[in-house]
């Protein structure tokens, strides 16, 4: 899933998702200015990121996976499955529709 966090975008706060399949070897491009998350449907998975810059843990942030304002329908993908979250992911805040996240070009402009 990817959520548009670019202030001023026509799709700000909306999400799009795709099911990735190891046999198809499909990929999902998520541009700068979008939050992203994933849900593993198998017993094991290999997930790789290709980033536009070096990893910087001080730049990490997140939105609660089940935020009601975004309304991602995880149950359509995996009905009757309770997600297992990392401690870090369980502490994310809710989405703030009035918050400042990224500008329209994907450059950070807000406060965490």
Q: Distance between termini?
A: 21 Å
What is the helical fraction, as a range of percent? under 10%
Q: Give the strand tally.
A: 3
- Average pLDDT reading: 88
For the biggest sheet, the summary is: 3 strands, antiparallel
Residue ranges: pLDDT <50 for 5 or more in a row? Answer: none
Shape: globular
Element string (H = helix, E = strand): EEEH
Count of helical stretches: 1
SSE class: little secondary structure
Provide the gyration radius in Å. 15 Å
- How are the strands ordered across the major sheet? 2-1-3
Describe the model.
The structure is a single chain. This protein is low in regular secondary structure and 112 residues long. It has a three-stranded antiparallel sheet, with no helix packed on it. The protein starts with a strand and ends in a 35-residue tail after the last helix. The chain has one helix at 74-77, and strands spanning 2-4, 15-16, 34-36. It contains one helix and three strands. The model has no long low-confidence stretch (mean pLDDT 88).
